[in-house]
Every structure is written in C-alpha cells, then in structure tokens.
C-alpha cells in the first residue's frame, strides 16, 4: 500500500490528473471532477423513452426512432446528452489516453442508474467488445474500462470473455442507421451458451443503438433471458 501510494504521488506530479469535463488540471488530485464542472453538469431528466431513454414528450412512452425500430435489447439508460462538452471529454478519454476518466464516468452511471439496476437485477456487465487490431492500436477498450469501474461500484461482475468482436468493421460515425446495421452484421460472437442470463451492455455513447442491438441479438440467440444497456451519453 505504501509503495502504491508513493508511485501514485510520483505519477500525479509528472502527469497531474485532469478534470474529465474541461480537461484542466484538478486542484484536488483526489477529486474526480472540478467543482465548476460538477455544478454545471446536467444529467438527462424528465420523461424518457421506455426503450432507449431519450427524452420524450410528457404523454409519450417511446421516441420516434424506437417507434420505427425493433430493438433486441429490452431497455436502456444513458446519463448525459452527447453535447459538445461531453464529446470533447470522451474524445480526450479515447484518443487522448485519459484512462482515469473512466472512474468519473462510472460514478455518474452508478448514481443515475441505481434504480434501473435494482429493477433489472443483472447477472453481469458486458462491455461492448473491440476488435483486437483496434484495441492494439488504441491500447485499451474504453467500454471495458468503464464497465470495470462500474463493477467495482455496484458489485455486479464484469465479463470480458463472453462476447468478442471477431471481424473488423468500418467506422460507424460515417454511416447512416441502415449502414451501421449492415456494417456490424456477424461482427460479434458469444463464446459460450448463456441460458437465462440477465446482462447489461456497457458503452460510452448510444448513437442509433446498432452496436448494442447487434450484441444483444447475439446474446439472446445463445440463450440470454434479458439484455439491457447503460451508456454515459446518448445522441439526442
């Protein structure tokens, strides 16, 4: 413990921790986010789509997209809208190598998602898997880091061995919804039967749901009973 604390002190001096929202150096090295950003963060509240959790009108149960689209997952929750502030944060996390941001992201998801997790009663958390080539190039899977931190906070086991990505795919953001679905066809493999499993898929951003749907379908085809999702952000 003493050695680990000494190592952390040295690393903090060389690479001071930064706020995951504004990317400024934290005055309190033990904090997860600076006070001004903590005060300014606005999680999604109010009526939400029963399926994907996007904001909806007072008397609506589903958003327009979920009324048009069949989802293989059962329900999901996202914490923040994917606005410019969160886009920069996640870009710094993924492309800037700021792995420590995962702890803050998971804390937000655990706090906002506590009631959902109690309702869903999941057996496992499953981070959206990354193809080994992309993981090698980036050095880590961002969904796995978030899921691991979320597992520590909730006590729900994180399983990275159940689902793997067996085929490299094109960058999703360059494709429309139908193109995203075609791009992901057959890309994920469930490594063992999962009869009766109740799983929560974890990722950073929900855009159209194509990735989460594809993983959900693979899980249900191998016996999963229910599949839910949690993401930090959702595109509104």
What does this structure look like?
There is one protein chain. The protein has 236 residues and is α/β, with parallel strands linked by helices. It has two domains: 41 residues, no CATH class; 191 residues, Rossmann fold, CATH 3.40.50. The protein contains nine helices and six strands. A four-stranded parallel sheet has the order 1-6-5-2. Strands 3-4 form a two-stranded antiparallel sheet. Helix 5 crosses helix 7. It is globular and about 50 Å long. The N terminus is likely disordered.
Task: Detail the topology: elements first, then pairings.
Blueprint: H1 2-14, H2 35-40, H3 64-68, E1 75-81, H4 84-95, H5 101-120, E2 124-127, H6 132-138, H7 142-154, E3 163-165, H8 177-184, E4 188-190, E5 198-206, H9 210-221, E6 226-234
Parallel strand pairs: 1-6, 2-5, 5-6
Antiparallel strand pairs: 3-4
Helix pairs in contact: 5-7
Summary of the model, kept short:
This protein is α/β, with parallel strands linked by helices and 236 residues long. The protein has helices spanning 2-14, 35-40, 64-68, 84-95, 101-120, 132-138, 142-154, 177-184, 210-221; strands spanning 75-81, 124-127, 163-165, 188-190, 198-206, 226-234. The longest helix is centred in the middle third of the chain and has 20 residues, at 101-120.
């Amino acid at each position: 413990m003493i050695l680990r604390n000494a190592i952390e002190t040295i690393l903090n001096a060389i690479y001071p921790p930064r706020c995951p929202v504004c990317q400024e150096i934290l005055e309190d090295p033990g904090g997860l986010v600076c006070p001004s950003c903590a005060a300014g963060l606005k999680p999604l509240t109010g009526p939400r789509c029963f399926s994907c959790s996007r904001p909806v009108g007072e008397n609506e149960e589903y958003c327009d997209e979920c009324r048009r689209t069949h989802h293989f997952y059962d329900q999901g929750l996202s914490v923040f809208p994917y606005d410019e502030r969160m886009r920069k944060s996640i870009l710094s996390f993924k492309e800037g190598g700021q792995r420590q941001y995962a702890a803050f992201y998971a804390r937000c998801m655990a706090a906002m998602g506590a009631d959902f997790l109690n309702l869903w009663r999941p057996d496992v958390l499953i981070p959206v898997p990354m193809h080994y080539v992309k993981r090698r190039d980036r050095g880590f899977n961002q969904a796995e880091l978030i899921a691991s931190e979320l597992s520590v906070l909730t006590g729900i086991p994180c399983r990275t061995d159940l689902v793997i990505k067996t085929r490299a795919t094109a960058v999703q953001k360059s494709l429309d919804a139908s193109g995203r679905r075609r791009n992901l066809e057959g890309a994920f493999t469930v490594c063992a039967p999962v009869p009766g499993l109740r799983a929560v898929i974890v990722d950073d951003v929900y855009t159209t749901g194509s990735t989460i749907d594809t993983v959900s379908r693979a899980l249900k085809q191998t016996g999963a009973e229910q599949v839910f999702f949690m993401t930090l952000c959702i595109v509104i």
